[in-house]
Structures are given as C-alpha cells and as structure tokens.
Amino acid sequence: MATKTTGTAKNDGFSADERAAMKAHADELKAQRSRGGSTSKTDGEADVLAKIAEMNDVDRALATRFHDIVSETAPELTPRTWYGMPAYAKNGKVVCHFKNAAKFKTRYATIGFSDQAALDDGDIWPTEYAITKITPATEKKIIELVRRAAG
Questions:
Q1: Of 77, 90, 103, 124, which alpha carbon lies 20 to 30 A from 38's?
Q2: CA distances from 7 to 13, 17, 73, 76 (A)
Q3: Would the CA dihedral through 118, 55, 27, 77 be positive or negative?
Q4: Residue 75 belongs to what H/E stretch?
Q5: Distance CA 19, CA 17 (A)
Q6: What is the CA angle 36-37-41, rounded to 5?
Q7: What is the DSSP string of 79-141?
C-alpha cells in the first residue's frame, strides 16, 4: 500500500546540495528580473567571478582557467551563473558551464554543455567532461569544444 507523502518529509528526493543549487537558481532569476529581465556581460562576469572566488583552491584554479578560455575563445558568450555555477550563454540560453567538485562532493570537476551547444556528432556524444587539471593538451581540447559549442 502506497503512503501519501507531503513536502514536509525529511527526505523529499533532493539532497541538500541539490536544494541549494535550486535556491541559487531562484536567486539568479530574481536578480535577473531586478536588472530588467537580462544579465549584462558586466553583471554576469561579476557574478561568475564571485562564484569562482568562493571555490576551494583546486576548483578555483580550474574554473578561473576555464573562464579565461571561454572568454578568449568565444567572447560572444555572456558569462552568468546557472544553479550557482559559472556558465556562459548565447542569446540568453546556457551553452556551457563549470561544475566544481566540492559543490557536489565529487572527486572531479566537470565542464558541461547544454543542448544549445553545437556539439552534435551522429547519434551519441558527450555533454559533460571530467577535468582534474588543465594541461596544454586539455586546454587545446577545451578550446575546440567551446569554439564548436558556441557555433
């Protein structure tokens, strides 16, 4: 027999980290509305840099370099936060983002790409990449992915 659950149950299906990310997204939408419905490149950059500054040393170094790569490779993308993570949008839609390891207590950070990214490759392709350090080889791969993703 199924039991009825309410929103007050201790385990509502979301972890504390997931609830925090949803709250961050709600706060981002509120801030966007207070700015007149959009986030300027300057506002978005400040928001992204603030989120990066909150990260631990390892994640901060990766996120900073990723931010620099995206800014240099695809200056047409607008920095913004997305669920509390650094992200980059085209025409208001997130194309790619950086998910720091510590935020979700995972062993590696990831670089993710949304369905807005122009990375389609046949019937199957990755949308998220684990990253533990940025070497010249990984930087080259990130540049290639960001360039393609931005279209």
A1: 103
A2: 10, 17, 44, 42
A3: negative
A4: none
A5: 5
A6: 90
A7: EEEETTEEEEEETTEEEEEEE-TGGGT-SSEEEEE-TTSS---TT---SEEEES---HHHHHH
**Alpha-carbon gap, residue 90 to 61, rounded angstroms:** 24
Tokens, residue 137 = 């080889």
Give residue for tokens 């240099």: 72
Give the SS3 label for residue 53: helix
CA 54 to chain centre: 14
- pLDDT single digits (tens) 12-70: 787 777 777 777 766 666 666 555 555 566 788 999 999 999 999 999 999 999 999 99
What tokens were used for 10? 């201790």
The phi and psi torsions of 114 (rounded to 5 degrees) equal -85, 180
What is Dmax (Cα atoms) for the chain?
A: 58
